[in-house]
């Protein structure tokens, strides 16, 4: 955008190192899936191991020359590293390899740029890209002279670099201003839902866990879903009806990944706000994945980072159709509350259990009884019908109404207050805690 670099191509060489420090290790299989999701054509995977990265090339001198030879053999124009590279390491590698070098963060940013569809999503991706690019501007002008003291040593390089930096800062400022407006609009929508007391249930989970497929199954929508990493980028909201709870807003959000770049977490904070302020989180888990436990820990880590670790969570173990003899079921804790739901969004097996579990977690105490109303209490009757709470109605010879209702205790109390009827007439008073 602002500087010259080697041309990019789809034929790519992948590089993965096993580092001694466990926290810095990445999954080579996931890395290959990332490359494929970005549209690359991996022709070789070069692996190695080191105690710590080399300051110059990240890999050692010999490994770097091996990468260069493999790239020449396959005529590859792109080398992807399954690690975060410093600007200096990227510059040194591109000089040695004579091809485009991209680290794990840059690869994820490229995938996000391809997936963004909404105005907000495109702004968030561009913001993350510009902030990532701001530390890498200088290498694009190494072919120009730097301004130095002395006659004959002055050149245009630093002047052009400063121009680029000013353009970059101006564009970042403009994007932040636009995102502020989008966030205000999104906050207004959330406040309206809160005033209407509509619960928000947000789908979270590791990328490619099946969130969008489950979302489509529950809401009967046609949100884009594919067997690839980061198929969903922009949040999608749908309103559904849940028995004993009423209307609920279901949100499909971007998937998480191991070592999610911090720039992306910051840029997508407006999108992730749906997760932070949700009433309930559905943590969708790929039950058939070999990395299941590690992925669960990674999602929990990201939730903690964005401040959503205090929101109640219901774990949804998806893809049980890929596990032998796995059956749909609800697992409960010691208090009998739903803790895990096992299902398959692809086949639909067990998906009917999810609304049941949501209703148990979101629903207050449900009142299911027969209410006896006088003929002049038609306003109360109308309010009950408006809530779809009446299951059966009988009228005796004196015109007395007998209504069989099923409604949340909270909603019944609101109706009674609205029509001016003493709640104790239908609901027993709350007893003091004997303790």
Automatic annotation (TrEMBL):
Pfam families: GTP-bdg_M (PF16360), GTP-bdg_N (PF13167), MMR_HSR1 (PF01926). GO terms for molecular function: GTP binding; GTPase activity; metal ion binding; ribosome binding. It is found in: Cytoplasm. Its main location: cytoplasm. The keyword Acyltransferase does not apply. Its cofactor is Mg(2+). It comes from the Bacteria. GO terms for cellular component: cytoplasm. Keywords: Cytoplasm, GTP-binding, Magnesium, Metal-binding, Nucleotide-binding. Mg(2+) binds at residues 212, 232. Residues 199-366 form the Hflx-type G domain. GTP binds at residues 205-212, 230-234, 252-255, 318-321. Monomer. Associates with the 50S ribosomal subunit. Belongs to the TRAFAC class OBG-HflX-like GTPase superfamily. HflX GTPase family. GTPase that associates with the 50S ribosomal subunit and may have a role during protein synthesis or ribosome biogenesis. This is GTPase HflX. It comes from Motiliproteus coralliicola. The lineage of its organism: Bacteria, Pseudomonadati, Pseudomonadota, Gammaproteobacteria, Oceanospirillales.
């Amino acid at each position: 955008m602002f500087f010259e670099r080697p041309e990019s191509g789809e034929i790519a060489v992948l590089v993965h190192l096993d580092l001694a420090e466990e926290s810095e290790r990445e999954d080579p299989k996931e890395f290959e899936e990332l490359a494929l999701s970005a549209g690359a054509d991996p022709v070789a995977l070069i692996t190695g191991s080191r105690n710590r990265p080399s300051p110059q090339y990240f890999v050692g001198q010999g490994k770097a020359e091996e990468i260069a030879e493999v790239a020449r053999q396959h005529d590859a124009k792109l080398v992807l590293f399954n690690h975060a590279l410093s600007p200096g390491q990227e510059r040194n590698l591109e000089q040695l390899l004579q091809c485009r070098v991209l680290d794990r963060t840059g690869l994820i940013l490229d995938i996000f740029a391809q997936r963004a569809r909404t105005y907000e999503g495109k702004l968030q991706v561009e913001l993350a890209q510009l902030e990532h690019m701001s530390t890498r501007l200088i290498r694009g002008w190494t072919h120009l002279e730097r301004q130095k003291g002395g006659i004959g040593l002055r050149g245009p390089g630093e002047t052009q670099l400063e121009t680029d930096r000013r353009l970059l800062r101006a564009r970042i400022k403009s994007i932040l201003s636009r995102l502020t407006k989008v966030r205000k609009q999104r906050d207004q929508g959330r406040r309206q839902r809160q005033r209407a007391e509509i619960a928000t249930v947000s789908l979270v989970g590791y990328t490619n866990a099946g969130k969008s497929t489950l979302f489509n199954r529950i809401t009967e929508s046609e949100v884009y879903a594919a067997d690839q990493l980061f198929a969903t980028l922009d949040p999608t909201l749908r309103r559904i009806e849940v028995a004993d709870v009423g209307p609920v807003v279901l949100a499909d959000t971007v998937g998480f990944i191991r070592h999610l770049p911090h720039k992306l977490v910051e840029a997508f904070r407006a999108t992730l706000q749906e997760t932070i302020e949700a009433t309930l989180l559905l943590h969708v888990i790929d039950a058939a994945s070999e990395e299941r436990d590690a992925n669960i820990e990674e999602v929990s880590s990201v939730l903690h980072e964005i401040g959503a670790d205090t929101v109640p969570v219901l774990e949804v173990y998806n893809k049980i159709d890929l596990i032998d003899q796995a059956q749909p079921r609800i697992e409960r804790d010691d208090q009998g509350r739903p803790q895990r739901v096992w299902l398959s969004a692809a086949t639909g097996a067990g998906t009917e259990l999810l609304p049941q579990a949501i209703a148990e977690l979101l629903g207050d105490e449900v009142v299911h009884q027969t209410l006896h109303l006088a003929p002049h209490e038609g306003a109360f009757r109308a309010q009950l019908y408006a809530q779809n709470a009446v299951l059966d109605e009988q009228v005796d010879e004196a015109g007395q109404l007998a209504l069989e209702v099923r409604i949340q205790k909270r909603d019944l109390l609101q109706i009674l207050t609205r029509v001016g009827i003493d709640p104790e007439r239908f609901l027993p008073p709350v007893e003091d805690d004997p303790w």
